[in-house]
Each structure stands twice: as structure tokens, then as C-alpha cells.
Amino acid sequence: MTGAGATVVIGAGMSGLGFANWWRARHPGADVVVLEAEAEPGGYCRTVARDGFVWDYSGHFFHFKDPEIEAWLRARMPGQAVHTVVKRSTIRYAGRDIDFPFQKHIHQLPHDEFLACLVDVFFASRRPAGEAPPRSFGEMLVRRLGQGITDKFLRPYNEKLYATDLDRLDVDAMGRFFPHADVADIIGNMRPRPPGAGAGADGAYNATFTYPAGGAVQYVHALLHDLPAGTVSCGEPVTAIDLAAREVVTPRRRIRFDRVVSSAPLPALARICGVAHDPAVFSSNQVLVYNLGFDRKGPRDVHWMYFPDRSIVFYRVGWYDNILPPAPGAADRMSLYVEIGAPHGHTFDVDALRQRVLDDLRREAIITDHQLVADHHVVLDPAYVHITAASLAETARLKAQLAGHDVHSVGRYGGWTYCSIEDNLIETRALADEIS
Ligand SMILES: Cc1cc2nc3c(=O)[nH]c(=O)nc-3n(C[C@H](O)[C@H](O)[C@H](O)COP(=O)(O)OP(=O)(O)OC[C@H]3O[C@@H](n4cnc5c(N)ncnc54)[C@H](O)[C@@H]3O)c2cc1C
After folding, report:
1. What are the DSSP E strand ranges found in 303-380?
2. Helix (H) or strand (E) segment spanning residue 399
3. What's the Cα-to-Cα distance from 176 to each of 146, 202, 213, 418, 420, rounded to whole Å?
4. 421, 422, 426: which to mutate for ligand 1, most atoms within 8 A of CB?
5. pTM
6. Is the pLDDT confidence value at 179 over 60?
């Protein structure tokens, strides 16, 4: 048995490390232990450096809304250059590149397809007053943006990503991350832009983004900066929580807790707490990420590209080499991340899929005679959770029940939600205030 009345944090990702910092700032000298199942901290916000390439577990770019949080992190990243970049993202649609978001750039489609989308979105905007609200994400898309925009981009792209039928998902499944646009936005955006004004100026939530030269893991290092040595214990999974005895169990010890803050996926937390729940409610996709390093540059004017075409295996490709300049003296080479979505439970044939990715990159003229000189892959499972009416209700019920035992479920997977790392920090800061 270790001590009495510890604050036990499960998971050393952004949420767990964020909470450990906020708690210690409010309770100096508090007994806080962060238990992490993996051999190193960071969760999904990790970076791998290989053969001169710097890659994240998947492209992680940052859009801070709260200047206080960004300044707090940057103060703990001494000597780390953080680049601010005006986003250039496009959609590869039938051989041409349309600016993102698709719905605001339909005027870049072939003329007849543009007219079809415009007519559909116009009549979608004139639906009868008093109509019942849409029942699903898929229905919301057609009602707000019309059949054309939905069928050409929103449905095929999002079904490749989520690996599920969009009619299963809650209307608000993407929250603020969905770029809404009405007819006025769409038509207003058809005005010619002044030279040099890219698509990044369209008011999207991520029109600019920041990225540290050392990769996303720099934010994890920032969160480790103030924590006393020994706070984080890696390679120590929590295998059970005894709610009655108020003890956390790991293969090494039992720890009596005053409170637990867990960033483990919510259904896993419910299971280790022995709390009845419906696991079928918590469906999600998994994402296989390939990081690929080539011998020389490829396309230059893009940071990431979306692929709605169902015959292309990936749904998105990003270019690290167009975001960060090469290290001094290093060759300027193409450095890509490539994302493939699949339902949870699917088994990837990683070697066959890598070859398929290379074939599809060639088909889309992203590589020609380029040589692959380094590669890495990782599976994120869960990656995008399926937010449904049932998952929202079960999440709220379980979180409230567990909070009654001073066990708080936080983070992207603890809250079974769609969010950014900044949201993780804002949420855990608010929790530290609330339960202090
Ligand atoms: C494909 C993809 C792209 C993304 N891109 C961006 C982006 O560009 N910008 C951005 O801001 N956000 C992005 N995100 C979101 C971001 O990754 C998450 O918000 C953030 O990493 C979640 O942190 P977390 O601590 O909540 O969860 P996690 O990172 O999942 O951390 C949870 C930790 O808990 C540990 N754990 C689980 N169970 C146990 C247990 N029983 N015992 C001990 N430890 C346990 C895990 O090993 C893990 O380390 C992206 C996410 C995905 C999937």
C-alpha cells in the first residue's frame, strides 16, 4: 500500500499531465501520481524522429484559442522554435484541387457540377419553417448543404474517416470542428480574392496553425517541465479500481486515493471500476498512420489534402516538409503522413497497405520516381469516436456515477468526444478548479 489519500491520475497524455500540473499549482506539495500504461508519456501527442525526419503519431497541429494556455506552454519550451503557418489545405476531387472547405469552394468545380451543388444548397436553405430537426449527422448535411455537396464530398470523405454510416452519428458529432456555411457564406466566398490571399483567409477555426520544430511532443515536454521527478510512472497500467476500498490497483502496488482523474477510454474505465455499462454504445474508428520519408521534394503549395474518392485507400495526406523548413544543412525531402480509417476490430495488413498507399500516391501524382527512404506506422485505436445519441447519454450517466466516487473521467476518450489538445487542457484546468 502506498501512502493515503493520493491524487491518482490515469494516463500521461495531454489530459493527465495537464491535470497533474493544474492540481499541483493549486495544491503545492500535493501527493500526485500519474500512472501510464505505455513505456513513455505523451499518449497520442507523441513524435518519432527517424533518418532526419520528424513525425507525429499523426499530423498534430495547433490552434490555440486561449492565449494564457499557449503562453504557459511556450514558457516551458525553452529554445524551441514554434512556427506559425497560414494553412493551405485542398481537396483532390476528380483530378483537380479544390480549396477546403469544399462547401465554400463549389465554384472551383466543373461548371455543371457547380450549378448542381448551387441549386441544391439554395433549395436546401428554403426548407419549410417548423420542420422537425434532422435526426443524424448525415441528414443534417443534406438539409443544410444539399444533396450535391453531401454526395460529392461530405459523405464519402467522412465515411472513409469515421468508417461508419453517417446516419448513425449525432447531428453535432463534429461539434465546432465542422465548417458550417450558409448560402450567403458560399456565394460571398465566390468573390475573386486579392492576389496572395489563400483559402486560409476564409475564417475557418484553423486558418492559421502553430507547430514546434521538434514536433507535437514538445507540448508533452512542456507539461512534464514543472512536475517533480517520480510523479509519472510509465509501464504501470491501472488494472482495477476498487471503488468501495478507494484503491487503485496496478501490477506493482495498490494506492489509496482521495480522487482519481482518468484519461483512459471511458468504457475501459467503467470496466476496471466494475461499473455496469453498455460497451456496444461506445463504437469508434481506428486510424492507421503511415509516416513516409522520400529522397526529394514533391508538391510544394499544400499542407494537407483530403481524398473523398472511395477508390483511394487513404482519406488524408499531410506534408511536414511544407510546414517546417529543413534543418540547416539537411536535404529538402518530402515527409508525409498518410491516414487510413477502418472500423474498430479490423485487422490491417500493414505491408500490403503500405504498397497500396504508394500506388495511390503515384496515381495522384504526389510521387513520381521518388524513392521511399524511411517509414514508420502506428495504429490509433480508438481515433475518432462515434458520437451518437446513445453514446452521449451513456457518457453523461457514467461520468456522473463515477464522479460520485471521486473518479473523474476526462480527455478525448474519457469524455468519448471530438476535441483538440487545448480542449484537454481547458477541461482539466476547469476540473482542478471545480474539485479543489
Ligand atoms: C488522427 C488524429 C489527429 C489529431 N490531430 C490533432 C491536431 O492536429 N491538433 C490537436 O490539438 N489535437 C489533435 N488530435 C487530438 C489529440 O490527439 C487529443 O486531443 C489528445 O492527444 C488526447 O489526449 P488525452 O490525454 O485525452 O488522451 P490520450 O492521448 O489517449 O492519452 C491517454 C493515456 O492514457 C493511457 N492509459 C489508457 N489506459 C490506461 C490504464 N488503464 N492505465 C494507465 N494508463 C492508461 C494511454 O496509454 C495514454 O497514454 C488528433 C487526434 C487524432 C486521433
Report:
1. 304-306, 316-319, 335-343, 372-380
2. helix 389-403
3. 20, 15, 27, 9, 11
4. 421
5. 0.95
6. yes
